[in-house]
Amino acid sequence: MNQCVQDVFSGRMNTPYYLDSPFVDERARYLAQMLERGWARETVIGTAGRLVGFARRVDITAAGGVTAAQIEAAADEWMKEPRHYFRQLIGPHKSRKRFVNVATSWLRFLGRLREPDCAPPPHADLVAEFTRFLDQERGQSPATIKRRRGDALGFLVWFDQQQRPLSEVSILDVERYLALPRNRPWSRVTVAGCVASLRSFFRYAGTRKWCAPNIGEAIDAPRLYTLAGLPAGPSWIQVRQLFAGIGQEQHGDIRNRRHPYPVGRLWLSQQRDLPPQT
Predict the structure, then answer these.
(1) What is the distance between the alpha carbons of residues 213 and 204, in angstroms, rounded to a whole number?
(2) Which among 207, 194, 210 has a CA at the least distance from the CA of 150?
(3) H/E element, 145
(4) pLDDT (tens digit, 9 = 90+) per residue, 216-275?
């Protein structure tokens, strides 16, 4: 095993527990690169213990690599073991999740993880061409391009579920997409940003004849108000709390409680339990 790894375990762990388990050299290489990258000693020790638990259950040399299902199954078996020194009291859910993350990172480091086959998103070639246009022709910033690309992909993924060709898309489809119920409702600012992205995409799509022209110009954005985020004013409960903090004995206190300013008097007179004063 790597000397620096042995130094970490010296006096702390049962070294044969690591040396007698499978794939000792592969585990040592991964732990050594963790140390070189500045990971804490306790973190490296915990990682080493989880790698032993995984290496004893899965043959990482199998043809085709190790699948996510094999990692999950090994994690379930590992959780049935008595708690070791490196298994801190972080709860079963977090402990199992950390085991899966450690095994996944180790296999990816070794090039032995069988990554899931992910189909490209719908119209990925069109989005890639649109992205190149924003970069090379429009010269937009990377942050703007990322936002435009993400919003365009979001719409195209949803529209692909309608089982209709992109050539049939209309402004009504865009309005339906913007009005979809979401787990976290969009604010006016978020909707306006998405509208800007879809306008840019459909303007380009119209010039490329991917869809009908003028869809981009027809997308309506919500109006943004400059002072919309400012509070309307204190609540009546807050006003009464403010008055309660003013004394009643000094002349200045009596003057402050009478509130001589006309605007403030008019506002206070509109409250339900404060009669107007002439």
Answers:
(1) 9
(2) 194
(3) helix 142-160
(4) 888 887 776 665 556 667 777 877 777 777 766 676 666 666 654 444 444 445 544 545
As a residue count, the chain comes to 278
Residues 228 and 231: their CA atoms lie apart, in Å, by 8
Domains in the chain: boundaries: 3-110, 124-218, 236-269
CA distances from 138 to 18, 130, 205, 207 (A): 57, 11, 15, 15
Spatial separation of the C-alpha atoms in residues 207 and 213, rounded to whole Å: 7
Q: What is the dihedral of CA 25, 30, 32, 37, to 10 degrees?
A: 170
**Two tokens, residue 141:** 């910033």
Residue 182 and residue 5: Cα distance in Å, rounded? 49
Rounded (10°) CA dihedral 186, 189, 195, 201:
-110
What's the sign of the alpha-carbon dihedral 56, 60, 61, 66? positive
pTM for the model stands at 0.46
> CB of 243 within 8 A of CB of 274?
no
Helix (H) or strand (E) holding 18: helix 15-19
* Nearest residue to 191 (alpha-carbon basis) of 204, 175, 202: 175
Cα of 183 vs its chain's centroid, Å: 14
The 3-state secondary structure of 46-85 reads HHHHHHHHHHCCCCCCCCCCECHHHHHHHHHHHHCCCCCC
| Structure tokens that stand for 257 in this block | 């409680």
Q: What is the CATH number of domain 124-218?
A: 1.10.150.130
